[in-house]
Amino acid sequence: xxxxxxxxxxxxxxxxxxDVSPAVAAAAYRITQEALTNVIRHAAVDRALVExxxxxxxxxxxxxxxxxxxxxxxxxxxxxxxxxxxxERAAITGGTATxxxxxxxxxxxxVVWAGPP
Length: 117
Description:
By secondary structure, the protein is α+β, with helices and mostly antiparallel strands. Residues 71-76 have low confidence and may be disordered. Helix 1 runs antiparallel to helix 3. The protein has helices at residues 22-43, 71-77, 81-92, and strands at residues 8-14, 47-54, 60-66, 96-101, 107-113. It has 3 helices and 5 strands. Strands 1-2-3-5-4 form a 5-stranded mixed sheet, covered by helices on one side. It is 35% helix and 30% strand. The termini are far apart.
């Protein structure tokens, strides 16, 4: 659906993710969907990057980023409920969400599930 909206998504996986719990996998999927929806609605870009990483502590990290207008677009056109939902979904599954503008422009949604998922 992102491609249909004109946004190419690059997916990068780092490390083995085969043993991630079903709850964390489902949360990561839904968080990715919401973050990409925000890119489509607010970022004014044609590319986004989704990265999944196995952390050295055995946990998992998800990062969805773009190089668009970021927080300016979100502040002017969104309710912010999607971002609240991302934080809540992360917390329910034992993760921590960090959401905000990138120093070099754009916006990032980052969720970390520490320890074995």
